[in-house]
Amino acid sequence: MNYFKKLSIPWLLVLFSCVLFFACKKDQYYFDGGKSNPVFPGTTLEYLKSNPRSFDTIVNIIKIAGMERQFNEDTLTFFAPQDYAVALLIKQVNSTLFTYGKDTVKTLTDIDGLIWRRYLSNYIFKGANKLNDYPQVDVGAKAIFPGQNYVAYSGDVFNIGVRYADADGVKYTGYRQLLLSYIPNVSQPLDNWVSIPITSSDVQPKHAVVHVLSTDFPFGADPQNLIQDVLLTK
Q: What's the whole-model pTM score?
């Protein structure tokens, strides 16, 4: 005998209502987590402090570099390296120091504050710019989609642009991602870019915009230059 034939109409309605309720709850769990609010009610430094899992080391570097004022007051765009990028750098620094018989870095203060200031400034640009403020870039077709060059606080030149991914075989119709590219030789501005993708964009503290960099690259636009600077101080 069919089990459902034993159920009265009211019970079938109750069963249907329960299924519908839990289906809706599941949809809410997976799809209705609330819109992410990009606006942060504080300064750039306060935003970084509010995310210690990603930026605790970066906050300490800002203090050692004597740049707290800039991160509290300036209107800026900060391409924020995460703490893991610093760990990758320190590993490379210590490998080089060990090779030359120098004392290795045990704390962040073992690296001169001026060096931290110099290379942290690679990631800071005047003006608060969001993803939509940058032009398209295609590193494989720079003549067509060149992005745009900007001078960082450090005085170094970087290219910033939005990379358009392909989707379903159609070029440039997919997701959009910011790309920060260091230009090592400004006399050859299209050559040898060191490009770092952004993992999240458009966080908006007061007077600023923060774009978070991928952790796949060590701290410093050109880590080898930073390592050489550290070596000269030992």
A: 0.83
